[in-house]
Amino acid sequence: MAVSKSDIAQVVAQKAGMPKSRADDVVSMVFDTIQGSLQKGERVSIVSFGTFEVRTNKGRMGRNPKTGETIYIPEKRSVKFKAGKGLKETVR
């Protein structure tokens, strides 16, 4: 089962004793802040949870599996997440 942003907002609303609409706004602001930092190339570290970081995968030569043709795969940026100690211990 997956947990959605709405599910997270529901839990925040219950724990903080606030309306769900306000919790939706707060959760959205947190995610927007993380996303904005990553867009700027900044690392986002949340103590005991983990670190989000943008990494660039270099361009390389590859093969089209259908035709066997050699093709160039351009470089791309992707988000990597490294779980922190607290999160790792929680899921053991």
What does this structure look like?
The protein has helices at residues 5-16, 20-39, 85-91; strands spanning 44-46, 50-57, 60-63, 70-73, 76-83. By secondary structure, it is an alpha+beta fold. It has one domain: HU Protein, Chain A (Irregular), CATH 4.10.520. A three-stranded antiparallel sheet has the order 1-2-5. The chain has a two-stranded antiparallel ribbon with strand order 3-4. Strand 3 (60-63) and strand 4 (70-73) form a beta hairpin.
Helices, strands, pairings?
Blueprint: H1 5-16, H2 20-39, E1 44-46, E2 50-57, E3 60-63, E4 70-73, E5 76-83, H3 85-91
Helix pairs in contact: 1-2
Poorly predicted parts: none
Whole-number average pLDDT? 96
Task: Find the CATH superfamily.
Answer: IHF-like DNA-binding proteins
Number of helices: 3
CATH topology title: HU Protein, Chain A
Question: From the coordinates shown, what is the CATH architecture?
Answer: Irregular
Structural domains: how many = 1
Main beta-sheet strand count, sense and barrel state: 3 strands, antiparallel
Structural class, by secondary structure, is: alpha+beta
Helix content: 40-55%
Overall spatial form: elongated
Across the major sheet, the strand order is 1-2-5
Order of helices and strands: HHEEEEEH
Would you report the number of β strands? 5
- What is the CA-based Rg, rounded? 19 Å
Distance between the termini: 18 Å
Using the coordinates above, name the CATH class. Few Secondary Structures
The portion of residues forming beta strands comes to 25-35%
Summarize the structure.
By secondary structure, the chain is of the alpha+beta class. The protein has helices at 5-16, 20-39, 85-91; strands at 44-46, 50-57, 60-63, 70-73, 76-83. Helices cover 42% and strands 29% of the residues.
